[in-house]
Amino acid sequence: QVHVLESGGGLVQAGDSLRLSCAASGADSRDTASNYAMAWFRQAPGKEREFVAAVSWNGAATIEAPSLQGRILIARGDAKNTVYLQMNRLKFEDTAVYYCAADSAYYGTLESGFDHWGQGTQVTVSP
Question: What is the pLDDT of residue 34?
Fold first, then answer.
């Protein structure tokens, strides 16, 4: 059982920056979360969940949603079971619940590819 926990959400003003954190932990010592690809998705009110960014298991490769390129950065932490999402120049339309996901076998942009999900952290950007 892999547990995923997000943190760092909150209320900010448009133009501010925010960094979200995610930590994944696995119950099976042979299947450590440091070997998992990890990703961020978000769901705005009344909209479907959408891909934000993903990072490969070793941090060597990343994918970012084209609409967010230039304003976000995803990276693994020094503890390899952690991932950060740095968001800059936040806009009102960035308001959403941000979810972290992890998987041992999939690295990509599809929700269906990730088996393990956190509960989400709310990001609210005031205009």
Answer: 66
